[in-house]
Amino acid sequence: MRVLSGIQPSGKLHIGNYFGAMRQHLQLQTEHNCFYFIADYHALTSNPTPADVAPYTLDVTMDYIALGLDTKKTVFWRQSDVPEVTELTWLLSCVTPMGLLQRCTSYKDKVAQGMSPNHGLFAYPVLQAADILIYNSDIVPVGADQKQHIEVTRDIAIRFNNNYGQIFTVPEEYIIQSVAVVPGTDGQKMSKSYRNTIEIFEPEESIRKKIMSIVTDSTPLEEPKDPEKCNVFALLKLVASPDELAEWESRYRSGGMGYSEAKKRLAELMIDHFKPFRKKRTELENNINYVKKVLANGAKHAKAVAVETLARARKAVGLGT
Ligand code: ADP
Ligand code: TRP
Question: Number of H helices and number of E strands within the chain?
């Protein structure tokens, strides 16, 4: 089975990205043929500062390798190193009904949040479909927010195949459901765009400070507290053992426990969770050439697949000789 997913290089990766997506990507490596890429063409839809695009791409690559990407087995590359995908986007655009894109909620949400409604942002799902179809993907692990884009991909693949013959594998989505939305320090969804993140590899002291600043309610220390309404408890669920979690739950419910005690323990557990990967992350920062080599090698493998699929699609629609 070919598993494929992409992640945008729009800032340093945070623990929401890790528990919500990366961890599952890394787990899938053991059983499947995985293709993961850094979606830098997609990131352009939010008009990033040009000087940020390449460093963020390297940051994401280093984070993945440090956290356990199997660079021998998994193909990992930068989307724009295989520009064939943009040509396929055009072929797919010509069988994509406007209404299909007009129904996409992610476009509407992003515009509502103040992003400029540029054509790239509107056509974003067609580029995503090209990413998925050009690599003959069977399974696409994504968060729930991306489910609609996989449905759009399936719809486009079926239309293309109906018009031109069996060119594309119609993929299945694999919704990553194991983790509820990870809250940020302010209690909203943790997200780079809300400035409420705890980065996976930020300095330990800074992780401690951020965890101590997590928003909690004002229930007095001696009173019982509802763990399910607490942002600190939501994060404890990600890193505490089941026994320890059960103990915290009963301490919340019986009262006499202050949030700062739970936060201190959370900081300790969170720092310990990522400690084994920090050394590797630092080694990679000192060996950028190796990181670039991983991307170049990934691009070579990915390109070989992309060129072949694109040639079939071009021929099917009648381009070339
Ligand atoms: P951000 O919101 O920080 O820009 P992205 O949209 O780039 O993050 O998300 C990359 C991946 O991480 C997606 O698969 C998304 O579902 C997952 N993800 C992001 N934030 C969270 C979160 N707070 N909780 C769970 N998963 C998340
Ligand atoms: N749109 C995805 C996101 O923002 C990233 C992405 C781009 C992607 N192309 C993809 C995910 C192809 C899965 C498959 O998270």
Answer: 14, 5
Neighbours of 218 (CB within 10 A): 5
CA distances from 4 to 74, 141, 209 (A): 10, 7, 36
The model's pLDDT over 225-274, given as tens digits with 9 standing for 90+, comes to 999 999 999 999 999 999 999 999 999 999 999 999 999 999 999 999 99
User: Residue 320: what are its φ and ψ, rounded to 5°?
Assistant: 75, -160
Q: Residue 103: how many CA atoms within 13 Å on its side-chain side?
A: 10
Domain boundaries, the chain: 2-181+287-317, 192-282
C-alpha 10/C-alpha 111 separation (Å) is: 17
CA-CA distance, 69 to 80, in Å (whole number)? 20
Q: What is the pTM of this model?
A: 0.94
Which residue matches tokens 């399910």? 228
Query: Going by CA atoms, what residue is nearest to atom 9 of ligand 2?
Result: 128
Asked whether 141 lines ligand 1 (CB < 6 A), one says: no
Q: What CATH number was assigned to the domain covering residues 2-181+287-317?
A: 3.40.50.620
Does 123 contact ligand 1 (Cβ within 6 A)? no
Other CB atoms within a 10 A radius of the CB of residue 242 amount to 8
Q: Ligand 1 centroid to 175 CA: how many Å?
A: 13
**195-203: average pLDDT:** 96
Residue among 34, 128, 189 whose CB has most ligand 2 atoms within 8 A, to mutate: 128
Polymer length of the chain? 321
Q: How far apart are CA 226 and CA 9, in angstroms?
A: 37
